[in-house]
Structures are given as C-alpha cells and as structure tokens.
C-alpha cells in the first residue's frame, strides 16, 4: 500500500511496517497483530490504519499519533477483507458475515449475514453509500442503508466460483472471480442522467458477461483517466480492458 514516498506492508508475522521507497529501508513498525495479517487499509488524509487477519480482530491505529485506537471484536473466524471509507469500516470474515463499524467510536453498527460461505471481498459504493460483498458461495450481494438499517436489495449469481475481488466506481462495478473471469456492471440510469426513484444499489445491471482469462482473477482496479479496467491473475499477468461506458 503506497502513500507518497512511503509504503506500508503487512505480513504473516503480524506486523505492519512502513518503508522509505527512496532508501529501501524500514523506518517503523506501525502496527502489531497477534497473528498473520491478511488485509489492511490506510487513509492518508487522517493517518488511520486498519489491519486484520487470522486472529479475527480488526485493529485500528492512528499512526501519526503513534497509538492504537481500537480492537474491534465480533468476528469468530479469520477476517479476509477490509474496506475503510472515511469513518466507516467494513470487514468480511470466514464466519460467513460482514460487519460495518464506526472507526472513531470503535463500535459495530451492523452485521450482514446472508452468504453461505466465507466472505472474501467487501466494497463500499461511495456514490450511494451502499455495500457490495462477495463470497465463496459465488454470490454477489448488494446492500443498502435506509431508516430501517442495512438490508440486502439484490443478489447476482453470474459467476460459478468464489468472488475474489470487487471494485466500485461512480457508474461502474468490476468483479473478479476464481472461475478465471471478470464481469462488469453499470447503472444506466446514472449514465443517462435519469433519476433513480427506487433503490440505487439494486440499479446495478450486468453490462458485460464474464470476460475469460487464463487464470483466477485475484484483483480488479480502475484507471479513470484512460477509462480502462485492470485485472490481475494468479498467473502474474495484468490485463487492461477498454471500458466503453463513461466512468
């Protein structure tokens, strides 16, 4: 994870270290977990670091102040995915649930429990404050927050293997899976400037059927300037896909 001239790395020894890319040296150990770290997120604006892994605990540090803020307890198995946007943190676990936390308070605001297997990826859609989760059950679930709380508003079963990566933009959504494919979703109402009077999260529609590759698609990210989507596979190959929709 890169922040300016510093890089953050997490390891199976439970540490999160900061490195200086100019000198290739470790300048600090900024966090310690009790077991292997499997995922982390860093907000360069606030200096807040979140890391989680095999101990089922999500740890929050203020690395600029040099202190640990919270240990978020609730999951009962490994935490494999984490996403932090502002004061909101989302964690996905092998206990088949995702949890939504408030970072500043260190409290759990919701438990999302509708999958039939471990959650391997979670994503936050900033444009509509929705959540997307992916699991070993091959399902993609869309969650929306309203006055009654967070509820699942849409299920998608386009992939035939575990969902490994989700990346959401303002008008598109990329998904990578263990069936060696990537799929792309869009919201046509948003693109055409038509107001969506219903559920925004349920407005996501499949734009392209899974694009086959030669290996499991481990990660999907966007290149907004060039309007491309990048997918990375287990075979070490990066692929750039042209996005014909306006992202």
TrEMBL record:
The keyword Transmembrane does not apply. WD repeats lie at residues 1-29, 34-71, 72-111, 112-144. Transmembrane segments: none annotated. One of its GO terms (cellular component) is nucleolus. GO terms for biological process: ribosomal large subunit assembly. Keywords: Nucleus, Repeat, WD repeat. This is Outer row dynein assembly 16. It comes from Gossypium arboreum (Tree cotton). The lineage of its organism: Eukaryota, Viridiplantae, Streptophyta, Embryophyta, Tracheophyta.
């Amino acid at each position: 994870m890169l922040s300016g001239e510093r890089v953050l790395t997490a390891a199976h020894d439970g540490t999160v270290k900061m490195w200086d890319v100019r000198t290739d040296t470790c300048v600090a150990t900024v966090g310690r977990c009790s077991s292997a770290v499997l995922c982390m997120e860093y907000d360069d604006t606030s200096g807040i670091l979140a890391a989680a892994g095999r101990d089922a605990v999500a740890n929050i540090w203020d690395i600029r102040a040099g202190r640990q803020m919270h240990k978020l307890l609730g999951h009962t198995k490994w935490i494999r995915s984490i996403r932090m946007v502002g004061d909101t943190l989302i964690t996905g676990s092998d206990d088949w649930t995702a949890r939504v936390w408030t970072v500043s308070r260190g409290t759990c605001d919701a438990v999302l429990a509708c999958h039939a297997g471990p959650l391997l990826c979670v994503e936050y859609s900033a444009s509509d404050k929705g959540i997307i989760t992916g699991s070993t059950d091959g399902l993609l679930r869309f969650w929306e927050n309203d006055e009654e709380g967070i509820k699942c508003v849409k299920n998608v079963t386009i992939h035939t293997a575990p969902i490994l990566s989700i990346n959401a933009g303002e008008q598109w959504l990329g998904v990578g899976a263990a069936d060696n494919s990537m799929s792309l979703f869009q919201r046509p109402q948003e693109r055409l400037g038509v107001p969506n009077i219903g559920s925004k999260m349920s407005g996501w529609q499949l734009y392209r059927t899974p694009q086959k590759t030669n290996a499991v698609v481990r990660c999907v990210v966007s290149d907004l300037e060039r309007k491309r989507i990048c997918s990375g596979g287990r075979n070490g190959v990066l692929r750039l896909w042209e996005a014909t929709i306006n992202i």
